[in-house]
C-alpha cells in the first residue's frame, strides 16, 4: 500500500508540473498576441526567404535597373564631355607631344611653372579673385540686409541691381570703353576736380576697372540669393532674441549669419568661378595681349592654344584646376565646421 501511495504522489506531482507549464505557455501566448509580435519561425535551410521577401527583393532589383536606365544618358554625357576630356588633358600633360607620345613625367609642369607669362597670369588672377570675390560676397550681403530692412522703393532698387544680368556683354564692354577711355566720362570728371588724365585700361589701375565691372554685373544675382536665405531664417528665434534684449547686431551675427552659412558658401563658389571667367570682358576690352595687370590665366591659355602647345596648355589647366579644388575644399570644410549645428 505504501508503494501504491508513493506512486500516486509522484503522478500527482508530475500532473502539477504539467499544469504549471501549460499555464506558463498560455500566459506567454497571450502576451505575444497582445503585443502584436509573432514568435520566430524556424525556416528550413533550403527555403531561407519567404514568398513576400522574394517579391520585395525582385521589386528592389527592378527599381534599381530602371533608375540606372534613366541615368544612363546623363552618365554618357558626363563621361563623353567631362571625364574623358579631362583624362586626355592629363595624358597630354605627361607626354612630350601628341605624335611621339613619350612619357616625360612632370617636365611639362616644371616648364609651365618656370614660364614668366604663366607666373604673371597666375599672380594677376589670384590678386583679382582675392579682391573681387570678398567684395562681391560682402557687398551683396549688405545690399540684401538693406533690402530686407523695409526701405522705400524696394522693388525698384531690386530691379535696378538685376538689370545688368539682362544686358548683353558686348553692350557692357562698350559702356565701359566709353566711361574709361582716355577721353571718356571718368577722365572728364576726374580732371574737373583737378586730377590728370589717365588711360585706365593701360595703367596699373586697370584691374580696378575690371573689378568694378565684375561687381556691377554680379551683385544683383548674389543679392537675390541672400534675400531668399534671409527670408528663411526662423522668425521665432529672432523674436525670442529680441525679448531677451538682444541688439540687432547681435541678432545678425549670432542667428542670421549661422543660417546664412550655406548660402555664403554657394555665393562664394559662384563668385570664384565667375572671377576666373572674367577673361571674356577683358578680351573684348583689350584684346589678346592687354596691359600687364590685366593679363589673366585665360589669356595665357588662349595664347598657348593659339601656338598649338597642347602639353603646356594641359599642364597649366591641371594646375589651375588643382588650385580651384583646394580653395573649394577649404570653403566646404569651413562651412561644415560653422554650419553643422544648424543642419543638425
Major sheet size, sense and barrel closure: none
The number of distinct β-strands equals: 0
Query: What structural class results from the helix and strand content?
Result: mainly alpha
Shape: flat
Number of domains: 2
The mean pLDDT is: 81
Our estimate of the beta-strand percent is under 5%
Low-confidence stretches: 40-46
CATH class of the largest domain: Mainly Alpha
Annotated CATH architecture of the largest domain: Orthogonal Bundle
* SSE order: HHHHHHHHHHHHHH
- Helix tally equals 14
CATH superfamily of the largest domain: MetI-like
Terminal-residue CA separation: 81 Å
What is the CATH topology of the largest domain? MetI-like fold
What value does the Rg take, in angstroms? 36 Å
The amount of helix comes to over 70%
Oligomer: single chain
